[in-house]
């Protein structure tokens, strides 16, 4: 085998190795036994927090809904990552703080891609350029603000 073939083969192997799929898991690690231990009418907020830990988030509109969220994503080299699975556990409490319902959703239906609307954040107020930002304070340091004099 010639040196060129060996080098070419090594280059192909290295190039294909760079295209491996990257899998990432984010969020709550669900333990089936702990989730099964949560019972409506028996558990309350404190016991749920001791069993599962703090929720991923609490509903902004209804503080009686706790969500535990986990997501697995997959990415090929430099391409954007895509969700492959999602597990959402929702625990609903009644007015007294006792568990009313435990629901689980393992579909990807509720995932939404949010695209930013441009690459710049608008800043409202004074519109200044590079030099105005650098040299804008010259003469302003130690200057007396307009208003009534202190001597009066």
Structure description:
This protein is of the alpha+beta class. It has a domain at 20-106: Beta-lactamase Inhibitory Protein, Chain:B, domain 1 (2-Layer Sandwich), CATH 3.30.1450. The protein is built from 4 helices and 5 strands. Strands 1, 2, 3, 4 and 5 form a 5-stranded antiparallel beta sheet that branches. A hairpin with a 5-residue loop joins strand 4 (82-93) and strand 5 (99-105). The protein is flat and about 70 Å long. The N and C termini lie far apart (99 Å). The relative contact order is 0.14. The model has no long low-confidence stretch (mean pLDDT 81). Pfam families: BamE. InterPro entries: BamE-like, BamE_dom.
**What characteristic shape results from the CA principal axes?**
flat
Number of helices: 4
Number of strands: 5
Distance between the termini: 99 Å
The share of residues in helices is 10-25%
CATH classification, class level of one domain? Alpha Beta
Give the name of the CATH architecture of one domain. Answer: 2-Layer Sandwich
- Along the chain, the helix and strand elements come as HEHHEEEEH
What kind of sheet is the major sheet?
5 strands, antiparallel
Strand content bin: 25-35%
Structural class: alpha+beta
Rg calc: 29 Å
Mean pLDDT: 81
Low-confidence stretches: none
As for the CATH topology of one domain, it is Beta-lactamase Inhibitory Protein, Chain:B, domain 1
